[in-house]
Amino acid sequence: xxxxxxxxxxxxxxxxxxxxxxxxxxxxxxxxxxxxxxxxxxxxxxxxxxxxxxxxxxxxxxxxxxxxxxxxxxxxxxxxxxxxxxxxxxxxxxxxxxxxxxxxxxxxxxxxxxxxxxxxxxxxxxxxxxxxxxxxxxxxxxxxxxxxxxxxxxxxxxxxxxxxxxxxxxxxxxxxxxxxxxxxxxxxxxxxxxxxxxxxxxxxxxxxxxxxxxxxxxxxxxxxxxxxxxxxxxxxxxxxxxxxxxxxxxxxxxxxxxxxxxxxxxxxxxxxxxxxxxxxxxxxxxxxxxxxxxxxxxxxxxxxxxxxxxxxxxxxxxxxxxxxxxxxxxxxxxxxxxxxxxxxxxxxxxxxxxxxxxxxxxxxxxxxxxxxxxxxxxxxxxxxxxxxxxxxxxxxxxxxxxxxxxxxxxxxxxxxxxxxxxxx
Amino acid sequence: xxxxxxxxxxxxxxxxxxxxxxxxxxxxxxxxxxxxxxxxxxxxxxxxxxxxxxxxxxxxxxxxxxxxxxxxxxxxxxxxxxxxxxxxxxxxxxxxxxxxxxxxxxxxxxxxxxxxxxxxxxxxxxxxxxxxxxxxxxxxxxxxxxxxxxxxxxxxxxxxxxxxxxxxxxxxxxxxxxxxxxxxxxxxxxxxxxxxxxxxxxxxxxxxxxxxxxxxxxxxxxxxxxxxxxxxxxxxxxxxxxxxx
Lengths: 424, 245
Known about the structure:
heterodimer; A: alpha+beta; two-stranded antiparallel sheet; 17 helices; B: alpha+beta
């Protein structure tokens, strides 16, 4: 029977081509959009975690309230002890202290007078120890464009664009002017070890990276850090584990009466991505729902047109004794075959194009040229097992649903009227 | 009798007005008392920050109320840091970096050594008469002494504080209390003199609390430990070369 119907579909192309194309395009778009959205979200989560919040972030309660202003006067003091406690309690996690700071980078001329000066946004991370997790998390090695990584205290990396603006090259010296933890003016000389490009406009434009030891010396922050970040060992955020860890840590350490007591927060809360992520989750459902509804209408319409075109054929089949249910079932079965074929082809094509985008990415840097957000310029799609289901199932459902709705008309045909209809 | 009462009503206000100097006159006397050709001050700032207390000591040389040279004496981390103000330019020298850097633009609004004062406060023309139109609004008591209350409005738009309310000691012509406002009318800073002293026949504030209202903490106490007026200061003191000495 299936073979018979399949042959029918192959021989009568007008019965199969349009519905097949409609299913193919719908499934292709759904799979591609889903994979792209998935990739964008993953890229955003990854870069937010690596550059800003970690999977978990510990700050003092006072610092947390003004975190976007890098208030180092409210930084946590006693980082060594805290790290020991964290490594003991959560040995599988990666913990790393960081200091964010703002300031001016002043470039001297031959006489030591200011030649150029520009605002910079600095990050103090562990750059010098060979086992530093930050080198991997921030992918610093890959980001180096000119020069090399810092190898000794007093060396820094500077954003490629920022270096260009300040006319700095590896080997040059510049003075950082900032504020100490106690608000005094801080001045420290640094040698440019290399320039870096991360593909994040806000960082490439004004970032400098210094070893946290140097930053502590420059900003008078011994054993202090603005924040301590925690990462899961496989670099995948696990909301359930993170929430439990944060609750347990806060029960033990947070003191509502002490503004300098540490407080642990999770990635979605710290980054403000919580609402965004739930919106993205709903977006995937919305895309599928719109797809199913739109495709059902399109395929219902196609089914109706097919029924009109095959009005005579169905009439003859009913007239020679085929019962309504059988005709209806064969129409649905035909739709199932078209749906299956269209969904397979659409899924393969959608996942294929998405995979290419996963490998090569799409550079949207021109959109974020003046952005101050820590978002990557290049976006990648991400093909997951979900990509193979997200379009396939709705593709099948909408085709069958369309044919099933269109086929209802079969039951309205009156056997007594058939010959009359056939005569006209 | 009726004539006598009428005369009293007519004469009394006239006598009261006769006793009150004009706002300009008060401001002129305040400036005359505060500003000297040359000044050498040794001072101490106790900064009551959110994380505790910090003391910064400094010695300043001032010339013609326009130029100033300041050397920080303590704490050890800040000792040797020097600042030179020549007219409307300000340089700072840090011995750690051996660099002299011009402080300009928004950096002038930054806190001075973590205190409630800003570099801009240092850069201000000390003659209030040059900067503000004054209005005498009444009398009051401050530090248990009678004071004039004046409201000052900036004459030019580019002045750090658009308006001020000052309480001036009626006898010593020292500002004993001051509120500083932004153009929007927002209170930015408050200054409360806690103690006065005489130096070479002038009354000066010995101790004052500066409070940046927009900043947390309990303010900065500025204590004058020693002050001398009209001492000869060599010109070389006010040169960039002296920053590196």
